[in-house]
Amino acid sequence: QVQLVESGGGVVQPGRSLRLSCAASGFTFSTYAMHWVRQAPGKGLEWVAVISYDATYKYYAGSLKGRFTISRDNSKNTLYLQMNSLRAEDTAIYYCAKDSGSLGTQEMHFWGQGILVTVSS
Amino acid sequence: DIQMTQSPSSLSASVGDRVTITCRASQSISNYLNWYQHKPGKAPKLLIYKASNLQSGVPSRFAGSGSGTDFTLTISSLQPEDFATYYCQQNYNTLALTFGGGTKVDIK
User: Fold this and answer.
1) Which helix (H) or strand (E) holds B45?
2) Of A26, A51, A79, A96, which has the fewest beta carbons less than 10 angstroms from its beta carbon?
3) N- to C-terminal Cα distance for chain A?
4) Is B55 on the interface with A (CB under 8 A)?
């Protein structure tokens, strides 16, 4: 069955960096686009970024102002989110999600359980 | 970016009630509208895609409708496991996906 398992979260000081990973199994990872979505405490879902199946296309939420980078390693069935210059407002649960297509233009039809990132001094 | 506005932001209902949640887009999005269910501590779950298509495995009491700017999620007979927060999401502008603010459904 499809599994998405996020890791790499934790407490980090403002201004520092963190890299999240999402290990995928149960499907042919290299043929699907993948997303990151986050949920700040007490807030709703916010889309963060998408990457196409072959990493040709990458798009980001405008609010991130270039601080985050999405990437993938299809040989390792793993999705990444590199987060730099972290701010308190980046505190959230981060979810990886599988798109139903290869380019990231379809619905997010399977999600991981999420990983908590806390930005605090 | 396309703004998605859900109403109500919360509602209280009883088991067996018919529940309707609305989602309005700031511009026409055709039928590029998805609905998700999210329970605390759990992974969000896709319910409806392309406005009215029921995701595999989702009970038939869930139904979606609408096109253009106005959309509806209806739960025909609310069950105990349906108490959750529901989000709409547009994938018309695929360079900037956006979610509605959510509708929390709790027990009356």
Assistant:
1) strand B45-49
2) A26
3) 40
4) yes
